[in-house]
Specification:
four-stranded antiparallel β-sheet, seven-stranded mixed β-sheet, mainly beta, elongated
Length: about 120
């Protein structure tokens, strides 16, 4: 079983910055792709950014140039640095981690509990 612990959400003014963290733990063969998704009220969950085990990143057009995803493989932790925040970035942000199990090598996907980010003056 894998546990994900998210932190770093909160209230910030437009133009401000926040950093989200998601620490993964559990007995797995490997932690693979890690990413952040968000869901605003009345909207579907959407991809924000992902990073592979090798450090290849991808992100939504709406956050390019403002958000940066990174990971610390020694700590099994993924980060989302969010700069120049806008009111439309307000959402619950969810961490997602894909793993490979020992033995079976089965791939699984896990979600964090979500952390609220509110951008408002």
């Amino acid at each position: 079983q894998v546990q994900l612990v998210e932190s770093g959400g909160g209230l910030v003014q437009p133009g401000g910055s926040l950093t989200l963290s998601c620490a993964a733990s559990g007995t797995v063969f490997s932690f693979n792709d890690m990413g952040w998704y968000r869901q605003a009220p009345g909207k579907q969950r959407e991809l924000v950014a992902t990073i592979s085990g090798g450090g290849i990143t991808d992100c939504a057009d709406s956050v390019k140039g403002r958000f940066t995803i990174s990971r610390d493989n020694a700590k099994n932790t993924v980060y989302l640095q969010m700069n120049s925040l806008k009111p439309e970035d307000t959402a619950v942000y969810y961490c997602n981690v894909e793993t490979t199990a020992w033995g079976t090598k089965m791939r699984m996907s896990y979600w964090g509990q979500g952390t609220q980010v509110t951008v408002s003056s």
